[in-house]
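Cross-posted from the bioinformatics board.
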Amino acid sequence: MKKDLRVIKTQESLRKALFTLLKTKPLETITIAELCRLARINRGTFYLHYKDVHHLFKSYVEVIVEDLKLSYREPYNKTNNNIKFIKADMIRIFHHVNNYRDFYQIVFDEHIPMMYFYMLFDTVRSFMKESIDDYTFEKVSSVQMDYYISYQTNAILGMLIEWHRQDYSTPIKELNEQLLEILTFKSPFR
Amino acid sequence: MKKDLRVIKTQESLRKALFTLLKTKPLETITIAELCRLARINRGTFYLHYKDVHHLFKSYVEVIVEDLKLSYREPYNKTNNNIKFIKADMIRIFHHVNNYRDFYQIVFDEHIPMMYFYMLFDTVRSFMKESIDDYTFEKVSSVQMDYYISYQTNAILGMLIEWHRQDYSTPIKELNEQLLEILTFKSPFR
DNA sequence: ATTATAATTAGACACGTGTTCAATAAAATC
DNA sequence: GATTTTATTGAACACGTGTCTAATTATAAT
């Protein structure tokens, strides 16, 4: 059994309306009433599908995150040099964020709920876990691993936050160099 | 010229009302109307002082952040061993978060806007900057430093996120060990 | 104590929210 | 094609939002 055509039409209209409105005003100022007027959908119908505007927006985020995952799965030159490896992994995240810059400008906005950050966090974390699982031979307890992976994951996201705050003015090439620099840096902590 | 007594009374009533309501329901469900009824303040008066509930909540956050800064300034055993140094710096952040656990459970909630995370980020970042400035002798460009500091800052916050997601079940002592482990870890990335 | 200043108030306004209802229309099933 | 099923609709409801007025009251200044 496939999905009712009416449902598809309704959801597409709302998605389109949200997309249109996002070009003119910030997400946090978009009301359900406004969306429904533009989409020519009864306001009650909105609530049959979504809880609030964020629930609708989340369906976007899922598409973007899917693209991130896809781009990550893409074949690429794997080397047995770990630092090149992690660099290749993360550089593709930088590229992805750059491609969807308009989108991430929303996600990193201070008025936007943490949930989208966590969605990004979880996705990058799964990549990070793979990288570390594949290339770490030292055995440590799983609890330790949880903290270590979250530590490394959020470190990368810290670079994205810095990028965002500098209005994405730093070119990817330079970000790339920064990351390499950091990973090979003779840290003051050791 | 000091502040009008009426203003002080109004703001204290609202703060108290928010504090009371937070014990019974999540921040995101607290309405301005509800706060004003409890505080016996006219709703119009609320708008003379605050833009929304988050603006009021922010005055809490500022108090907490102030305590974090204070606790950071406290004298402590500084050693010329850098890893002990950074560990001492960050362990006091873990303690602080533990002390205000109820509060940070709100701040890290997925429905809460990023702004509070950024406030924490900025505060920890300033500590991180000091640590690195004091103990890093290699000279690098300021742009590089911005990324490096944000990278290290958010790494620590990644541990806090992991801690939060594990319902703060990990004892501080163990977090302490985790951090030490990570900082001395023979990273797979190098 | 009197006066000047400024905060607070009640009331109203248009609009948004979240929910419910019976009526209708569109799609799926037979 | 007729029938059953289900999504959508419009209307209404109580409540919240943000803004504005004029009247009132508390505080500060004299």
